[in-house]
Structure to design on (436 residues):
């Protein structure tokens, strides 16, 4: 630091001061060497204390004169710095060789426009209101001012930040903040809360999507979608990435959105009550998952499409049964015999009554039952079963044929007799053709 010498001459007395002596407060004025008489209240008297004060003011002005050329601004850290959301980041800006009129200004590039964050400890309300910014001023001497800004990092803090001497763009230091931000949400068909259910139709194509949002680097993000208990189905989905601008607390930011989508996915009945899971894995961060329970629904399925039953005349309380699967629950179940219909839950008619028994806790599986109070000859024949729920009718409908025991289509001996009769009829036809 160069030495400056300032002179003050009064009544033949010259005082020389070095810059170092001023900073160390070692200025000494000798009353014997300095005799100044001033007029106070009409009296001429010695007033060395008043002279000393005047000298100090003059010397301070002399001290600062010509020093602005040596002003410097330094910023710590510099260059590009990286943080994670929630990190406490501190930046220190220091101005040296300053005068009392010099100020420090912090600025941020916000939505393409440089805005002031703070000026000499006065925080811009835009930043103060977020509750994430604090400032500290350290003024060790007249010449050196340190200004430290501490930020609890969020995604919108990404981008350039400047510290500069107010009104002098030449004295500006800049750094660039990078925020490594993972996804903040993962949604399956716009549902993010675990424990939720999504319902799909087993007979129709459905749109299924998993979307991760809030990250800022798609290259660090890996996404997978699985049906727990069945396996990974990611290869059946298309991946897309887009970036969007957002504003939070008046600050502008940019984030990414990645989607896995299949607009024609078909769930099968085996997927019912399984968990559909979407995983978003971001480098160096905990995996974020979306999870929903799948409910697969469709029209009823009747499994007895062509079955046979046998019984004997006068059999009491005989039951024709047929398994039915329905999710959602049945709205209609009807046995049809000839021209007569026997709906589920209605009173008996012609000695027949229809009912439906649930066979599992999910209430998807059941058994359609037609009870014949006392079997008579007119009860033998073909019965049809029709079922419906709010999604539609079962296709095909069920069919059960009731045979009399020992008759055609009935017991094993009856079936053998039927086969012999058919064979004999065929032989007679061939013989007649040969005779003609």
């Amino acid at each position: 630091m160069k030495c400056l010498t300032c002179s003050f001459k009064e009544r033949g007395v010259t005082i020389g001061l070095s810059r170092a002596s001023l900073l160390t407060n070692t200025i000494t004025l000798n009353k014997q060497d300095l005799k100044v008489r001033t007029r106070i209240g009409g009296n001429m008297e010695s007033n060395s204390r008043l002279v000393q004060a005047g000298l100090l003011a003059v010397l301070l002005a002399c001290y600062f004169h010509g020093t602005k050329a040596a002003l410097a601004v330094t910023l710590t850290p510099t260059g590009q710095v990286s943080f994670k959301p929630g990190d406490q980041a501190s930046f220190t800006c220091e101005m040296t060789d300053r005068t009392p009129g010099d100020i420090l200004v912090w600025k941020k590039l916000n939505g393409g426009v440089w805005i002031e964050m703070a000026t000499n400890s006065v925080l811009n309300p835009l930043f103060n209101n977020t509750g994430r910014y604090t400032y500290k001023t350290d003024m060790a001497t007249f010449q050196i001012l340190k200004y430290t800004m501490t930020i609890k990092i969020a995604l919108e803090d990404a981008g350039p930040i400047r510290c500069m001497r107010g009104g002098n763009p030449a004295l500006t230091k800049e750094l660039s903040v990078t925020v490594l931000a993972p996804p903040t949400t993962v949604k399956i068909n716009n549902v993010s809360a675990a424990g939720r259910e999504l319902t799909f139709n087993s007979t129709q194509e459905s749109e299924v999507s998993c979307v991760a949002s809030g990250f800022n680097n798609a290259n660090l993000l890996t996404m997978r979608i699985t049906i727990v208990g069945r396996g990974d189905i990611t290869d059946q989905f298309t991946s897309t990435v887009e970036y969007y601008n957002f504003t939070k607390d008046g600050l502008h930011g940019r984030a990414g959105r990645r989607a896995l989508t299949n607009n024609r996915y078909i769930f099968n009945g085996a997927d019912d009550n399984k968990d559909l899971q979407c995983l978003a894995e971001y480098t160096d961060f905990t995996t974020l998952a979306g999870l929903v329970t799948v409910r697969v629904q469709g029209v009823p399925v009747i499994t007895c499409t062509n079955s046979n039953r046998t019984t004997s005349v006068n059999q009491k309380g005989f039951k024709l049964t047929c398994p039915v699967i329905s999710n959602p629950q049945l709205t209609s179940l009807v046995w049809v015999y000839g021209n007569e219909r026997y709906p589920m839950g209605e009173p008996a008619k012609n000695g027949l009554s229809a009912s439906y028994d649930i066979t599992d806790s999910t209430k998807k599986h059941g058994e359609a039952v037609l009870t014949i109070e006392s079997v008579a000859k007119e009860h033998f024949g073909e019965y049809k079963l029709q079922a419906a729920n709010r999604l539609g009718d079962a296709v095909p409908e069920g069919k059960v044929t009731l045979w009399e025991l020992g008759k055609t289509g009935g017991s094993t001996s009856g079936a053998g007799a039927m086969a012999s009769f058919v064979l004999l009829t065929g032989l007679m036809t061939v013989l007649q053709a040969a005779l003609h």
Notes: The chain is about 10% helix and 50% strand. The first strand starts at residue 6 and ends at 10. Helices lie at 19-23, 48-64, 125-128, 412-435.
